[in-house]
Amino acid sequence: MNEHRDRTANSVSRRTVLKRTAASGTLVGLTGTLAQGGGTKIRLGGKVAGWQGQAPNSIKGQKNPTLKLKPGKKYTVVWKNLDGQPHDFVIRDKSGKQLVKTKIMNNRGKTQSVTFTASKKMATYLCTVHPTTMKGQVNTGGGNGGGSGGSQSTTSTSTQSGNDGNSKKPAKQIKLGGQSTGWKGIAPESIKGKLNPTLNLKAGQPYEVIWINLDGFDHNFIAMSADGDPQTADYGSTVVRSPLMNVQGQTQTVRFTPKKDTNEYYCEIHPVEMRGAISTGGNGTTQTTTNQTTQGSPSKTFQLGFKDGKWMGQSSGIKGKTNPTLNLQQGQRYAIKWTNTTSYSRAANRPNLVLTTNYPNGPALSRSDFLLKKGTSQTVTFTASKKLSAYFAENYRKAHGKIVVKGGGSTTTTM
Predict the structure, then answer these.
(1) Could you tell me if residue 366 is left (phi over 0), alpha (psi between -120 and 50 degrees) or otherwise beta?
(2) What is the pLDDT of residue 16?
(3) Which residues contact 168 (CB under 8 A, 6 or more apart)?
(4) Of 356, 324, 320, which Cα lies nearest the Cα of 235?
(5) Closest C-alpha among 304, 308, 305, 403 to residue 362
(6) In terms of CB atoms within 10 Å, which of 96, 177, 315, 326 comes out highest?
(7) Which residues pair with 51 in a beta bridge?
(8) Cα–Cα distance between 264 and 225 in angstroms, integer?
(9) Is the pTM of this model over 0.90?
(10) Are the beta carbons of 337 and 377 closer than 8 angstroms?
């Protein structure tokens, strides 16, 4: 079976706009036109770690540089895929509305161009697949596309959790080595040499995780808690998240204070291989994925298969349906067991399952790991909440379905 990748944006909206604006080639609600050329050129390189400024000289070498644009002036952004991962280029206003957008592209070395007229509404640019690391500011105070404010690589970086109320207390240190095959324990002696060692921590005590990049690939350190509050649909909150780092031998210091339910750490680029448990001596539990909690058995399990870039129903009531709607009752526990029906040769093509409040721009309420091998499966367990409205696979734009939650006086759906 051939690998299938859907690299297009929302197909329905694109078909609609092509009927209306075939002559101009513009996208729905967007000011940009693809492959038209003209205007002042801005050149960027795209990779998971961040956008790399290439031209003009004022942004060359900068990471996620600020783009200084003059309202009413035409610009062409030419960006090159540097790592073979799926990326697109999007400009948004302050409310998050997309003003300019290209297609998703995952061909290393290939370039893509988009031409647009700058407006005062433009606030940020980003990649929608990697919105936390590939994001920069747009300054419409005037300019030629150059700017400042981009981040630069350093020999070491430091990250602190936003709710670290014990920052003045002396922190206990943990040292790890980060590589694509897993976290390597360095210190203290109890974890030395162990792969993805369990970190035995004390809730309320500040800690410093000092980790070194061992292989030169993109990694970061994330600590999570399993909250599982069905009223807020908070199935796993981030305690601390460090920026990506891809320089071999470089170190990063991550400071945070674990809670009683802080239960795991991982790298968001390699969430399967680089994942370990955190034990706080309280009620924290070790999880195999970021979405499983210990709140009782599910009342119903939906079974899905991932095939040809789409979800296929496999259990009673949804069997044979493509991207089937899942009907839930608020407050009830459910499970979604999904199976990967295809083997993928590239990590960039791996599917996963995400539950969200609003596809495609809403936050992820629950997320499984990515699966690479045929026949492997994962189970996502959650409590139905009014906030749930859709499920999807992050790397596949046609793999998304509705979630309808009934009860509690209202019904929630979207899309």
Answers:
(1) beta
(2) 34
(3) none
(4) 356
(5) 403
(6) 326
(7) 46
(8) 7
(9) no
(10) yes
Radius of gyration of the chain (CA): 22
Looking at per-residue pLDDT, the higher value among 118 and 2 belongs to 118
> For residue 150, what pLDDT is reported?
43
**C-alpha span between 197 and 211 (Å, rounded):** 13
Answer whether the bond into residue 324 is a cis peptide, omega within 30°: no
- The answer to whether 355 and 391 have CB atoms below 8 angstroms apart is yes
Asked if 134 contacts 51 with a C-beta cutoff of 8 angstroms, the reply is: yes
Q: Residue 158's pLDDT band (boundaries 50, 70, 90)?
A: low
From the list 67, 71, 35, 36, the residue with the least C-alpha distance to 54 is: 67
Sign of the dihedral defined by the CA atoms of residues 300, 305, 306, 310, in that order: negative
In this structure, are residues 172 and 205 in contact, taking their beta carbons and an 8 Å threshold? yes
Measured between alpha carbons, how far is 236 from 287 in angstroms, rounded to an integer? 11
Structure tokens at 414: 């979207």
115-141 pLDDT tens trace: 999 999 999 999 888 877 788 999 987
- 349 Cβ neighbours under 8 A, 6+ residues apart: 3, 5, 395
Q: Are 18 and 409 in contact (CB under 8 A)?
A: no
**The three-state (H, E, C) secondary structure of the chain, written as one string:** CCCCCCCCCCHHHHHHHHHHCCCCCECCCCCCEECCCCCEEEEEEEECCEEEEEECCCCCCCECCCEECCCCCEEEEEEEECCCCCECCEEECCCCCEEEECCCECCCCCEEEEEEECCCCCCEEECCCCCCCCEEEEECCCCCCCCCCCECCCCEEEEECCCCCCCCCCCEEEEEEEECCEEEEEECHHHCCCECCCEECCCCCCEEEEEEECCCCCECCEEEECCCECCCCECCEEEEECCCECCCCCEEEEEECCCCCEEEEECCCCCCCCEEEEECCCCCCCCCCCCCCCCCCCCEEEEEEEECCEEEECCCCCCCCECCCEEEECCCEEEEEEEECCCCCCHHHCCCCEEECCCCCCCEEEECCCCCCCCCEEEEEEECCCCCCEEEECCEEEEEEEEEEECCCCCECCC
Q: Residue 250 has which token pair?
A: 């470089």
Task: Give tens-digit pLDDT for 67-95.
Answer: 999 999 999 999 999 988 889 999 998 88
